[in-house]
C-alpha cells in the first residue's frame, strides 16, 4: 500500500466517510424489503397508532409474543415511526440503516478514545484512528448483523446500543482526567440508563467497563480509585431492576425446557460455540439454527424434546464446544499481561453474550441478533491482527504487507457479499420462510409463517396446507396455529371445522382474543346471536384495545336494532384507531337508521378527510346529501 494512499486512509474524515459508504452500501438493497415476521405484529399494534397510549408504552407494554421484555424506548420509537411513516416499510428500513451506521461510527469514536492510551509495544503505540477504522468497517459490513438490522423489529433495539456506546465513551472521558469528571460521569450514567431502557443487552456495561480498566489500567487504580465509580453504575442497574420488577412488575414468564440444569448447561456450551463459529465464519445464516446439529434454537415453537433430553457429556459436539470455549478463556487469561488487547477482545465477546445465556430463561436458545454487540470483540481482534501484521518490520515485510492488504480486501468482500445476499432472504415473508424451511424442513414456525404469506396473497389453499403442516408438529400447543386454521376454514365456508379449530385454540390459551373473536363470527354466521355476543364481549374483556371486536359487536347490535349501543361501540373503535374508515361508515349507517342524516353526513366527511379518494364514501355521501335535501324540501312544504 503506497504511502500516499495510506496517508489518505489515515485521515479521520475519510475513514468516517468510507465506514458510512460501505455500511450503507451493503444494506441499500433492504430498502425494497417488506415487513416480515414480527414486523407485521408491531406495524398493526394498536398502541403504536396513537400517542395517547404513551403512558402504557413507557411502562414497557409490548404485544404478544414479546410480553416480559422491558424496552420502553422500543414502543415510543415505533409510535413515532407510525406517526411519521405510517406502514410504509421503506422508511423503516431507512431508519434501520441510519441506526446501524450510527452505531458503527460511534464505535469508531469509542475505539479511538480507547486506543489513544493503549500500549501496543514497548516502543510505540497503535495508530488509534487506523485501528478504529479497521474494526468499525469490519463491524459495519459483517453478515451476522443482518437479523439485527434488516429485521425492522430488532433494528429499533439497536438504539439502546447507541446509548451504551455513549455511556462507555463518557466513562473513559471521566476517568482520563480529573477536570469535569463529575459532568462526564453524569452524562455516562444517564446514557447508561437510557441504554437499559432500550435493550437489555446493554446491562453488560459495568462488567465491560471493569474489563476495560483491568486490561488497560493499573490494577491498584482499579480497586482503589474506580470502585466508587463502579458503585454508581451498579446503583443504576439496581434502579432499573426496581423500576422493572418491583414498580412496573414486568417479568418474563418463560420457562426452561424440561431436563434440568445439566442439560441446559450442555446446550448453552454448544450455543456459545455456534456463536463463535458464526462470528468467525458467517455461513449458513438462519433464523432457526440446529444446535449441535439436532436441537432447534427456537424451542418456544420448534421444541425437540427427544434431541434435548438425549444429550450426553460424551457427545463429540459437546466436547468440541467445551474445548473451544475453555481454550478461549485460557488464551484470554494467559495473554492478560503480554497482550491485554487480545484478552479484552475475547472477554468482550463472552461477556456481551451473558444476557442471552438463558440464566433467566428466554424463548430461544440462540439468535443471530444477539451477536450484534458481542461481534465487536471479534472485529477488534481481527483489526488488531491485521494492523499488527501490516506493521511488522523484517526482511520480507513488504510481501507480508501485500498479503495482509489482500486478506483485508478479501474479508471485506466476503463479509459484504454475505450481507447483501442475506438481506435478500429477508425480502418478503415467502422468501424468508421458504429459505428457513429449506434449512429446517419440519419447523412449525416456518410452516406457520409461510402459511401467513400465502394467506396475504389470497391463496387459501396453500395457506391451509402450510397451517396443517404446522399443526402436525405443534408440540408446544401454540394457540395461533389452530386459530389460523380456523380462520381459513371460516373463509372457505367450512364452519364446523372452523369451530373445532377455534375451540382447540382456546383450550391452548383461554385468553386468546383472536380465537374468541372468530368464534363470535362463527356463531353469528350460524345465527346464534347470543353466543356471538358473548364471545365478542369476552374478546373485548381480554383485549380492550382490539378494534375489530368493537366493530363486530357494534354491527351485531345495529342488526338487532340496538342502535345506541352500536353507536357507542363504533365510537370506541374510532378512538382506538381514527384512521380506519370502517367506524365512520358504520356510524353513518347507524345515524341514518336513527333518522339523523346530518350526523351520518358528518361521519362521511370525516372519512373523506382521511381518504379523499375513497369512491365508496363519496358515493354514499352523495346519496345522503340528496336524501337530506329532499327531507329539507319536505319540511318546507309542510
Radius of gyration: 29 Å
Could you name the ranges where pLDDT drops below 50 across 5 or more consecutive residues? 119-124
Distance between the termini: 98 Å
Biggest sheet statistics: 2 strands, antiparallel
Percentage of residues in strands: under 5%
- Which secondary-structure class do the elements indicate? mainly alpha
Number of helices: 32
Helicity level: over 70%
The outline comes out as elongated
Mean pLDDT: 91
Strand order of the largest sheet: 1-2
Number of β-strand runs: 2
Summarize the structure in words.
This protein has 638 residues and is mainly α. Helix content is 70%, strand content 1%. It has a two-stranded antiparallel ribbon with strand order 1-2. A hairpin with a 3-residue loop joins strand 1 and strand 2. Helix 6 runs antiparallel to helix 7 and helix 26 runs antiparallel to helix 27. It is elongated and about 100 Å long.
What's a concise summary of this model?
The chain has 638 residues and is mainly alpha-helical. The protein is 70% helix and 1% strand.
Amino acid at each position: 500500500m503506497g504511502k500516499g494512499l495510506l496517508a489518505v486512509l489515515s485521515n479521520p474524515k475519510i475513514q468516517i466517510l468510507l465506514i458510512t459508504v460501505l455500511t450503507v452500501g451493503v444494506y441499500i438493497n433492504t430498502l425494497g424489503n417488506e415487513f416480515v415476521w414480527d414486523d407485521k405484529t408491531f406495524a398493526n399494534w394498536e398502541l403504536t397508532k396513537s400517542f395517547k397510549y404513551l403512558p402504557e408504552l413507557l411502562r414497557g407494554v409490548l404485544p404478544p409474543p414479546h410480553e416480559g421484555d422491558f424496552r420502553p424506548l422500543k414502543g415510543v420509537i415505533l409510535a413515532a415511526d407510525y406517526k411519521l411513516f405510517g406502514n410504509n416499510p421503506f422508511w423503516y428500513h431507512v431508519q434501520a440503516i441510519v441506526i446501524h451506521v450510527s452505531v458503527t461510527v460511534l464505535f469508531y469514536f469509542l475505539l479511538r478514545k480507547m486506543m489513544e492510551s493503549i500500549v501496543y509495544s514497548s516502543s510505540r503505540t497503535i495508530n488509534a484512528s487506523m485501528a478504529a477504522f479497521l474494526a468499525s468497517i469490519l463491524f459495519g459490513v459483517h453478515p451476522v448483523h443482518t437479523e439485527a438490522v434488516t429485521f425492522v423489529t430488532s433494528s429499533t433495539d439497536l438504539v439502546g446500543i447507541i446509548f451504551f456506546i455513549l455511556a462507555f465513551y463518557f466513562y473513559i472521558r471521566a476517568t482520563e482526567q480529573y477536570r469535569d469528571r463529575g459532568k462526564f460521569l453524569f452524562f455516562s450514567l444517564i446514557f447508561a440508563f437510557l441504554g437499559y431502557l432500550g435493550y437489555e443487552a446493554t446491562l453488560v456495561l459495568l462488567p465491560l467497563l471493569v474489563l476495560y480498566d483491568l486490561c488497560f489500567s493499573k490494577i491498584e487504580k482499579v480497586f482503589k480509585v474506580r470502585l466508587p465509580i463502579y458503585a454508581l453504575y451498579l446503583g443504576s442497574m439496581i434502579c432499573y431492576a426496581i423500576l422493572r420488577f418491583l414498580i412496573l412488575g414486568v417479568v418474563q414468564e418463560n420457562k426452561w425446557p424440561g431436563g434440568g440444569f445439566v442439560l441446559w448447561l450442555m446446550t448453552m456450551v454448544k450455543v456459545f460455540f455456534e456463536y463463535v463459529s458464526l462470528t468467525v465464519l458467517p455461513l449458513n445464516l438462519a433464523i432457526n439454527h440446529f444446535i449441535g446439529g439436532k436441537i432447534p434454537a427456537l424451542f418456544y415453537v420448534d421444541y425437540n424434546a427427544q434431541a434435548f433430553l438425549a444429550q450426553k457429556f460424551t457427545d463429540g459436539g459437546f466436547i468440541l464446544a467445551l474445548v473451544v470455549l475453555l481454550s478461549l478463556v485460557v488464551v484470554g487469561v494467559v495473554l492478560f499481561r503480554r497482550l491485554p488487547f487480545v484478552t479484552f477482545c475475547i472477554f468482550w465477546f463472552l461477556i456481551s453474550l451473558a444476557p442471552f445465556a438463558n440464566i433467566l430463561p428466554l424463548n430461544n436458545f440462540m439468535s443471530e441478533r444477539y451477536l450484534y454487540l458481542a461481534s465487536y470483540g471479534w472485529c477488534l481482534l481481527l483489526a488488531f491482527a491485521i494492523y499488527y501484521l501490516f506493521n511488522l518490520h523484517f526482511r520480507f515485510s513488504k510481501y507480508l504487507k501485500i498479503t495482509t492488504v489482500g486478506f483485508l480486501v478479501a474479508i471485506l468482500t466476503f463479509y459484504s457479499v454475505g450481507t447483501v445476499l442475506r438481506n435478500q432472504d429477508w425480502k418478503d415473508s415467502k422468501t424468508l420462510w421458504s429459505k428457513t424451511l429449506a434449512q429446517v424442513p419440519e419447523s412449525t414456525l416456518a410452516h406457520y409463517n409461510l402459511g401467513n404469506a400465502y394467506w396475504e396473497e389470497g391463496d387459501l389453499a396453500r395457506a391451509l396446507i402450510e397451517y396443517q403442516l404446522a399443526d402436525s408438529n405443534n408440540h408446544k400447543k401454540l394457540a395461533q396455529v389452530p386459530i389460523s386454521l380456523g380462520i381459513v376454514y371460516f373463509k372457505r365456508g367450512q364452519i364446523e371445522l372452523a369451530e373445532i379449530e377455534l375451540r382447540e385454540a382456546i383450550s391452548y390459551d383461554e385468553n386468546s382474543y383472536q380465537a374468541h373473536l372468530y368464534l363470535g363470527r362463527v356463531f353469528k354466521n350460524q345465527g346464534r346471536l347470543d353466543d356471538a355476543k358473548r364471545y365478542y364481549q369476552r374478546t373485548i374483556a381480554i383485549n380492550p384495545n382490539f378494534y375489530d371486536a368493537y366493530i363486530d359487536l357494534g354491527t351485531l347490535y345495529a342488526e338487532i336494532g340496538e342502535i345506541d349501543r352500536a353507536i357507542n361501540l363504533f365510537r370506541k373503535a374510532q378512538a382506538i384507531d381514527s384512521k380506519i374508515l370502517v367506524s365512520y361508515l358504520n356510524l353513518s349507517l347507524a345515524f341514518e337508521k336513527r333518522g339523523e342524516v346530518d350526523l351520518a353526513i358528518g361521519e362521511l366527511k370525516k372519512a373523506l378527510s382521511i381518504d379523499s379518494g375513497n369512491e365508496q364514501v363519496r358515493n354514499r355521501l352523495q346519496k345522503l346529501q340528496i336524501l337530506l335535501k329532499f327531507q329539507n324540501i319536505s319540511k318546507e312544504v309542510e
